[in-house]
Specification:
It is a single chain. With 200 residues, the chain is of the alpha/beta class. It has 2 domains: 93 residues, 3-Layer(aba) Sandwich (Rossmann fold); 66 residues, no CATH class. The protein contains 6 helices and 7 strands; from the N terminus they run H-E-H-E-E-H-H-H-E-E-E-E-H. Strands 1, 2, 3, 4, 5, 6 and 7 form a 7-stranded mixed beta sheet that branches.
């Protein structure tokens, strides 16, 4: 049996909703919280003992956002999420990106930082392709169909929709070398916008 409990998005107090979940004794809880609130949720999840009750947490990747994950504590271990980036992504490019980002900022990069990185790469590559012509139509035409290797993995710009095509990873929070990471264990390759794909 599935049940939905809706939480006001601006609400930092999840405790009454978590208590309802604890009383229901589910096998798993699928959660969505706005980026940045995963740490608060995880703290209150542990305070109510839901982690010790064996209730599994699943959700989108911003629940265990990479920059906040180190402070979430052992209650986060085992949380399964789906997302397009992990600071633990196993590629030479990502390892170099994470090292440079941490050196400059003293914390881990997250999906928003890699989005900015890729956006700047796309603008630079498009300007190179247009010979510096920066008018909108020229840049958009140059960006269509572009492909490159990102710290998140291979990505491209769909020439029809101009949306990003990227891998989506299924990850599990694990402790590695004394720190918590979103460890990828399955990959859905070259995912397009599912809503637009369904309309075709």
């Amino acid at each position: 049996m599935a049940e939905a409990i809706r939480v006001p998005l601006a609400n930092p107090d999840f405790s009454p909703f978590l208590q309802r979940a604890a009383d229901a004794k589910p096998d798993a809880i699928f959660i969505f919280v706005p980026s940045g609130q995963g740490g608060t949720f995880m703290k209150q999840f542990a305070e109510r003992g839901l982690d010790k009750a064996g209730i599994k947490l699943i959700g989108p990747g911003d629940v265990t956002d990479d920059d906040l994950l180190p402070g979430m504590g052992s209650a986060a271990i085992g949380t399964v999420t789906a997302h397009h980036y992990s600071a633990d992504h196993n590629s030479a490019m990502n390892k170099a990106y994470v090292a440079a980002f941490e050196k400059a900022n003293h914390f881990r990069p997250n999906f928003m930082s890699v989005g900015g990185y890729d956006g700047m790469h796309l603008i630079y590559a498009a300007l190179k392709k247009t010979g510096g012509n920066a008018d909108g139509d020229s840049l958009i035409a140059a960006m269509k169909g572009m492909k490159w290797e990102s710290p998140r993995g291979p990505i491209e710009i769909d020439p029809e929709t101009r949306d990003i095509i990227q891998n989506e990873y299924i990850r599990k929070v694990e402790k590695k070398n004394g720190q918590l990471y979103n460890v990828e264990f399955a990959t859905f390759e070259a995912v397009k916008d599912p809503v637009k794909a369904a309309k075709k």
